[in-house]
Amino acid sequence: MIFDIITIFPEIFKNIVEYGVIKEAFKKGLCTLNIYNLRDFSIDKHGKIDDRPYGGGPGMVMKAGPLDRAVNHIKKVNCISKSKLQKTVMLSPAGKKLNQKILKKMSLLENIILICGRYEGVDQRFTDLSVDMEISIGDYVLTGGELPAMVILDGIIRLIPGVLGKKESIDSESFETGLLDWPQYTRPPEYRGIEVPEVLLSGDHGEIKKWRIKKSIEITKKRRPDLFDKNH
User: Fold this and answer.
1) d(Cα 205, Cα 117) in Å, to the nearest integer?
2) pTM reported for the whole predicted model
3) Structural domain of residue 178, as residue ranges?
4) Which of 114, 135, 111, 131 is nearest to 123 (CA)?
């Protein structure tokens, strides 16, 4: 999979491929990351990529031209044969809220172009003409789309076959079944007066599975009743 990120702060992504399973994914050649500085696609001698909003108001708006040129350049370089395997994604508070289902669909693509917005937003004409999806990572406002782009990058890469050691690692995770994960324990069997539940020490895999399902249901009902009601 090819990830292309368009940003005015490319240095933010400098070390993202140097840690954990993401590092292993790139080391194995399972994905490629290209970072593009939007200012390189400005035709202004000062590299200007924003301007004042029509109609007045505070702040600046990112211009359509540089963004369009950046996306067109990336598409020409990547030359993906089927357009349905390539998506241009805008990180935006107005986008659809990110969830595991969206990440799984995106993990089937060959190329994802992530647009990191800044300032007061992006000229709507660019969004209407060139963006396939708008995505938000939650109901709050950040200074730009760089952190959301990293969230999407991390969430997708771990779903690529061969990145994680066992398929079961993904299948049993929170949100995959519509439930939050069950409580996890490791050595020692007693810590500060709290003991590991006896069933987990029993070796009875059938009873352990029942206990885990029961706990997942209890936790989801208590902490995320919206999630439980939606999926059950």
Assistant:
1) 49
2) 0.87
3) 172-231
4) 131
